[in-house]
Design a protein that fits this description.
Layout (H helix, E strand, L loop, with lengths): L2 H11 L5 H20 L4 E3 L3 E8 L2 E4 L6 E4 L2 E8 L1 H7 L3
Antiparallel strand pairs: 1-2, 2-5, 3-4
Helix pairs in contact: 1-2
Function: This protein is one of the two subunits of integration host factor, a specific DNA-binding protein that functions in genetic recombination as well as in transcriptional and translational control.
Subunit structure: Heterodimer of an alpha and a beta chain.
Pfam family, one: Bac_DNA_binding
């Protein structure tokens, strides 16, 4: 599901809301999650999962085209861990 499909589904299930308002709500939620992760915080949505940031150390990588060794800087990457309720639903429990 992509963002526009999510917005459309929420708007269809809530006919009392305008689609532009649903779009603003969805964009605000994603923006707040992004801002929290950018500042190093963890975001937990009970029953769904938790978003956090993990640090990857600098390392020596390899260019797959040339085989040449290259230096890869340290970086921070988003990480998602599913919640128990979501895991159970996916596994049919």
């Amino acid at each position: 599901m992509i963002r526009s499909e999510l917005i459309q589904k929420i708007a269809d299930e809530n006919p009392h809301l305008y689609q532009r308002d649903v779009e603003r709500i969805v964009n605000t939620i994603f923006s707040e999650i992004t801002d929290a992760l950018a500042s190093g915080n963890r975001v937990e949505l009970r029953g769904f999962g938790a978003f956090s940031v993990k640090k990857r150390d600098a390392r020596i990588g390899r260019n797959p085209r040339t085989g040449e060794s290259v230096h890869v800087d340290e970086k921070f990457v988003p990480f998602f861990k599913t919640g128990k309720l979501l895991r159970d639903r996916l596994n049919g429990k």
